[in-house]
Amino acid sequence: MLALIRRNKLFFALFLILGFLLRGYMLKWHFLFQGDSLIYGDLAKNWLLHGIYGVTDGSSVLPVDIRTPGYPAFLAACFRLFGIEHYAAVVRVQLVVDLLTCFVIAAGARRLLSDSAAKVAFALAALCPFSASYSATPLPETLEIFFVALALLFAVAAAQKMRRAPPWDVRHTFALSDWTVAGLALAACIYLRPDGGVLLIAIGLYQLWLSIEFRQSEYIVAMVVLGLASLLPLLPWTVRNWRTLHQFQPLAPFYAEMPGEYVPAGFNRWCQTWVVDFISVMNVEWNVSTGTDGEAVDVKDIPNRAFDSTQQRRRTEALIREYNESLQLSPELDAQFAALAEDRVRAHPIAYYLGLPLARVADMWLRPRTEIFNLELDWWNYQNVWQESAMSLALAAINLFYLLAAILSFRRQIPGSGILWLFILCRSVLLATLANPEPRYTLECFPAVLMLAGINFSPRRYRGTEKDIW
After folding, report:
1. Among 39, 118, 220, 293, which residue's beta carbon has the most beta carbons within 10 A?
2. Coil, strand or helix: which one is 226?
3. 285 C-beta neighbours (distance < 10 Å), count
């Protein structure tokens, strides 16, 4: 990769500058600090100042496991270097990391196909507004995308080395080194976001398929190496949770709940019977709380698909009114939402188990991704703010361009690309199970999307030659 950069200095310099300007624009006009950023910042500050991984609870610090410690560790390091709560420095570091990710993605495309694929992938990554936008907010997406790209790069390199050499060849030993690096990158992914383990599942499935296809035990050894490198680093976090919180938790609670906090399973299941888009998450789901920080829900924000009949509409509206009176979802009220959800699931099982999950995944992949750009979420109501609607449609077109470019690469059937497709598929399956379809959850797949898009636009065919990673 370094040789390619030296031969094409002007090309890489030009798109690096353009990528820097794009991210600088995001930092200037779309810096966002709210919600999860506040939680991560509080964890980092308490960890740094008090030596306790926990959240502020009045005048004390309460140990928690609501977030894996990867991103708080990054924030704590930035706070140590640049000052407590110096988030401007944090996002500038993320800007650099995001630009480095472009080179890793290019290296992956080069590994899969050719130098020209690497150049195209680098240009597409540098100009991608979606990953660039998240470098301007204190959230783990930027670091997660970097380590996903790194894991994919070394996993592809290892798979190709093992495919091209007999079992006794020394390249198999080198491949185990690549699997180890990929595993360590996966451990970083999991520490940043627990769902980073989906990539481990995807790579493991690919290794299993290779072991069946080639009937070689070396692939089983590679699976063990990858698994150990990915999961052993989680041991300190697991031990800490056992000793401090007296519970076995190698990742983080599924609903990120505080110790002893009530999880509104009934309300969540009711939401899964009708929620398909992000605006419903913003207007309804995130307003409802079991604590003291709830907000009122406007019944008009609940679409008609949430009701099967006039009677059910009245029943639902009564539950919402009861919640709005106290702004707190009690276990008793949650049980009534659970009963309502059960009726709806019984009436429409195919929609609940298949149709709605597919609709949520489609929304996460295809919506304009306006949540970070200070644009109206209901972008289709162009009569309200037509300028914002036009910008949203432009973002949707860019997003669709990247996805179609990746899909069209499938016709080339490049060795090693199966890892990328399995990752996209496995992550989409996971996202289908969620009740809150947030578009940012698909961003972790963009390293794979960008590598595949680079392959699609490359004029050269795969030559099957051995290439170094860098």
Report:
1. 118
2. helix
3. 17
